[in-house]
C-alpha cells in the first residue's frame, strides 16, 4: 500500500511517500481502508520528535482518519467489514491506504457525514467536548469564548457549545475565519489580530466577563484571559506554544480557575461518553466537521506546513 513514512524526526521534508505492506488485524484489532486522513498540529509535533508521543522509527504518521472496515481480528464485535467508520489514534498511522486500530478507537460514521468530514472528527471534536463537559463543566446559558474559533478544534467547539445551549463568542485572525466562526454558530466574533479586541469582548458581556474560555494559544493569551473571565470563570488551556506571563491576583479576584486538556490522558469512561455525544451530534447534524482543504496523500509535506500557518479554515485532510 502507499503510505507516508517518517524515517527520521525533523521538518515537513522528512515525510516520504513509500510502498509498504498492508498490516493484518490481530485479536481485537480492526483494519480500515482509509478514505481520508485528518491533519492536526499534533502530527507536526510528533514528526519533529520530542513530543509526549514519540513512536519508534520508522513509522507512518497520522492520528485521525475515516474509511471503511476492511477486516476485523478475533473477538471484534462493534464493527464489521463494510462499515463506515472514523478512527482516532490508530496502531499504524492514518496517512496510508490502510490503518490498523484497536476496536475501542473505531467508531461508526453516520451516512450523512462524508469521509473527509469523518477524518476531521477525532482530535477536534473529542478535544472540544472534553474541554467543555469534563474540564469546564459547561452549563447551558453560560458564555464561552472560543479563543481560536476558525481551526479544527475551534469550529468543533463552536458547534458543540451551541448544541449545549451556551452563548458563544469566537475569535479568528482573518475575515474568512471570522465569517466561518459566525456561520458555524458563534453569536459574536472578534478579530484576535485587532488592537484592543479584548475590550470588545468584555463590552459584549456588559462588563461581567465570560464564564469559560477555550484557549488555543495560551502562551499569547493566558494573561489577558484571566482578566476576561467572570466570577468563578474557567479557562481551559487547549493549545500553547511557549511560556505565558500571568498575574495570579487576576485569577484570585475572580475566584477563577485554569484547567487543561491533554487528549492522551482521557480515561476510557470519558472516551465512551465523548463518542456517544459526538455520534449523536453528527447524526442529527448539530456537529458538521468543516473541511477547508483536501489534498492528495503525496502532498503531506504541504499539509504539515499549512496546518501550522495562520489563516485557519476548518480542517486540512489528506486523501490516499
Ligand atoms: P488549527 O486548525 O491550526 O487552528 C489554530 C487556531 O488558533 C485558529 O483558529 C487560529 O486562528 C488560532 N489562533 C492563531 N493565533 C491566535 C491568537 N493570537 N489567539 C487565539 N487564537 C489564535 O489547530 P487546531 O487543530 O484547532 O488546534 C489548536 C491548538 O490546540 C493547537 O496548538 C493544537 O496543538 C492544540 N490542541 C491540543 C490538544 C490537547 O490535547 N491539549 C488537542 C487538540 C489540539 P487564525 O488562523 O484565524 O488566526
Explain this structure:
It is a single chain. The chain has 320 residues and is an alpha/beta fold. The chain has 2 domains: 2-121 and 289-319, Quinone Oxidoreductase, Chain A, domain 1; 124-264, 3-Layer(aba) Sandwich (Rossmann fold), CATH 3.40.50. It has 10 helices and 15 strands. The chain has helices at 41-48, 115-119, 122-135, 152-163, 175-183, 197-204, 218-228, 248-253, 268-284, 300-306; strands at residues 2-6, 15-19, 29-39, 64-72, 84-88, 98-102, 106-108, 143-147, 167-172, 188-191, 210-215, 229-237, 257-260, 291-296, 315-319. It starts with a strand and ends with a strand. The structure holds NADP nicotinamide-adenine-dinucleotide phosphate (NAP). NADP nicotinamide-adenine-dinucleotide phosphate binds next to helix 1, helix 3, helix 4, strand 9 and helix 7.
Q: Report the order of strands and helices.
A: EEEHEEEEHHEHEHEHEHEHEHEHE
The ligands bound in this entry are: NADP nicotinamide-adenine-dinucleotide phosphate
Question: What is the correct CATH architecture of the largest domain?
Answer: Alpha-Beta Complex
DSSP helix fraction: 25-40%
Number of helices: 10
Secondary-structure blueprint of this entry?
Layout: E1 2-6, E2 15-19, E3 29-39, H1 41-48, E4 64-72, E5 84-88, E6 98-102, E7 106-108, H2 115-119, H3 122-135, E8 143-147, H4 152-163, E9 167-172, H5 175-183, E10 188-191, H6 197-204, E11 210-215, H7 218-228, E12 229-237, H8 248-253, E13 257-260, H9 268-284, E14 291-296, H10 300-306, E15 315-319
Parallel strand pairs: 8-9, 8-11, 9-10, 11-12, 12-13, 14-15
Antiparallel strand pairs: 1-2, 3-4, 3-6, 3-15, 4-5, 5-7
NADP nicotinamide-adenine-dinucleotide phosphate (NAP) is lined by residues 40-42, 123-124, 127, 147-154, 171-174, 177, 192, 216-217, 220-221, 238-239, 261-263, 307, 310-312.
Amino acid at each position: 500500500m502507499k503510505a507516508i513514512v517518517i524515517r527520521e524526526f525533523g521538518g515537513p521534508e522528512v515525510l516520504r511517500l513509500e510502498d509498504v505492506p498492508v498490516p493484518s488485524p490481530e485479536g481485537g484489532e480492526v483494519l480500515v481502508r482509509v478514505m481520508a486522513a485528518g491533519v492536526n498540529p499534533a502530527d507536526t509535533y510528533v514528526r519533529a520528535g520530542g513530543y509526549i508521543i514519540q513512536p519508534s522509527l520508522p513509522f507512518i504518521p497520522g492520528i485521525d482518519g475515516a474509511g471503511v472496515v476492511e477486516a476485523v481480528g478475533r473477538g471484534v464485535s462493534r464493527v464489521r467489514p463494510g462499515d463506515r467508520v472514523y478512527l482516532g489514534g490508530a496502531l499504524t498511522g492514518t496517512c496510508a491506504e490502510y490503518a490498523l486500530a484497536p476496536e475501542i478507537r473505531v467508531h461508526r460514521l453516520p451516512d450523512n457525514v462524508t469521509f473527509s468530514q469523518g477524518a476531521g472528527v477525532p482530535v477536534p471534536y473529542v478535544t472540544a467536548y472534553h474541554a467543555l463537559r469534563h474540564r469546564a463543566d459547561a452549563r447551558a446559558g453560560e458564555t464561552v469564548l472560543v479563543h481560536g474559533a476558525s481551526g479544527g478544534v475551534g469550529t468543533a467547539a463552536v458547534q458543540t457549545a451551541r448544541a449545549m445551549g451556551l452563548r458563544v463568542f469566537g475569535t479568528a485572525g482573518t475575515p474568512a475565519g471570522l465569517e466561518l466562526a459566525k456561520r458555524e454558530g458563534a453569536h459574536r466574533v472578534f478579530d484576535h489580530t485587532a488592537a484592543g479586541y479584548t475590550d470588545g469582548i468584555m463590552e459584549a458581556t456588559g462588563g461581567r466577563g465570560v464564564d469559560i474560555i477555550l484557549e488555543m494559544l495560551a502562551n499569547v493569551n493566558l494573561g489577558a484571559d484571566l482578566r476576561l473571565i467572570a466570577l468563578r470563570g474557567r479557562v481551559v488551556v487547549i493549545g500553547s506554544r511557549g511560556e505565558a506571563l500571568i498575574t495570579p491576583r487576576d485569577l484570585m479576584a475572580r475566584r477563577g480557575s485554569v484547567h487543561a486538556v491533554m487528549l492522551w490522558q482521557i480515561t476510557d469512561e470519558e472516551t465512551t461518553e465523548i463518542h456517544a455525544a459526538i455520534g449523536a451530534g453528527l447524526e442529527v447534524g448539530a456537529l458538521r466537521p468543516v473541511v477547508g482543504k483536501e489534498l492528495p496523500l503525496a502532498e503531506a509535506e504541504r499539509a504539515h506546513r499549512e496546518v501550522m500557518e495562520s489563516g485557519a479554515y476548518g480542517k486540512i485532510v489528506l486523501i490516499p
